[in-house]
Write a sequence for this structure.
């Protein structure tokens, strides 16, 4: 079985000169399946310095990975703790926009959707795990088991959240293009992901304890600088930076459409 489809050029800027960066080990990841190689080879773009895996998983490999669900990605728990974290995200956004459709892509435990509803938004969720979609629909949230690239809505969204999502996607430009089409003119894009441009990241590297080199589901390690320039290249302007409470060494970025 061919585990990965190899990138022939940088998935962000299309540069063909890409170099070996390092190798990680994913055997300790909770979703690891021993039918998949435990080694993850990371590459670096010669032109834009973006760091990414040598390739993205094939459909058969993804079936093995998605056959299990990480506890933190299951709908509901821990509800109260996540509600407080989600509320602080929403309160950063409501000065710019406070109503309309909030589309959460890869909603995981559902906390952001539950809390957005409390604040008066119309929550809609997308997730590739059917069990999660069925569970959140049972709890009264509109949700679809669809890929963002195939998703269509009659109405435009006020907010689209990619909370720890962009680094999971083989080609992030396609995701930003979809968001641009789905957002209204004053819409907000919320992103969170690990920030490789931080002192803590450097310290974890020096101590050989950086978990993101062995992150089974990630294809990208973004720096703050590269994320900002990538947003600008694809129709968005970053307007606020923050430190994420969701996972270790993560950043939160709020961006607006460039009109």
């Amino acid at each position: 079985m061919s585990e990965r489809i190899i990138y022939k050029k940088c998935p962000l800027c299309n540069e063909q000169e890409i170099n070996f960066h390092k190798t990680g080990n994913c055997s300790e990841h909770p979703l690891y399946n021993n039918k998949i190689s435990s080694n993850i080879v990371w590459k670096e773009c010669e032109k834009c310095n973006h760091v990414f895996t040598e390739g993205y998983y094939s459909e058969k490999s993804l079936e093995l990975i998605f056959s299990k669900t990480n506890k933190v990605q299951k709908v509901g728990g821990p509800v109260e703790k996540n509600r407080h974290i989600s509320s602080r995200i929403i309160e950063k956004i409501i000065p710019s926009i406070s109503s309309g459709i909030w589309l959460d892509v890869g909603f995981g435990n559902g906390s952001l959707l539950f809390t957005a509803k409390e604040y008066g938004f119309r929550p809609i969720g997308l997730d590739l795990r059917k069990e999660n979609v069925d569970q959140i629909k049972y709890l009264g949230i509109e949700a679809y088991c669809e890929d963002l690239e195939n998703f269509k809505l009659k109405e435009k969204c006020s907010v689209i959240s990619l909370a720890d999502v962009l680094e999971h996607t083989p080609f992030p430009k396609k995701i930003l293009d979809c968001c641009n089409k789905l957002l209204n003119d004053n819409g907000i894009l919320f992103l969170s992901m690990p920030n490789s441009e931080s002192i803590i990241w450097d310290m974890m590297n020096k101590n050989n304890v950086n978990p993101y080199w062995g992150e089974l589901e990630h294809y990208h390690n973004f720096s703050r600088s590269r994320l900002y320039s990538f947003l600008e290249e694809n129709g968005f302007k970053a307007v606020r930076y923050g430190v994420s409470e969701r996972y270790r060494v993560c950043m939160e970025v709020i961006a607006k459409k460039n009109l």
Residues 71-195+223-257 form a domain with the Rossmann fold fold (CATH 3.40.50.150). Residues 79-93 form the longest helix (15 residues). Helices lie at 59-65, 79-93, 111-118, 130-138, 172-182, 199-206, 224-233. The chain has a mean pLDDT of 94.
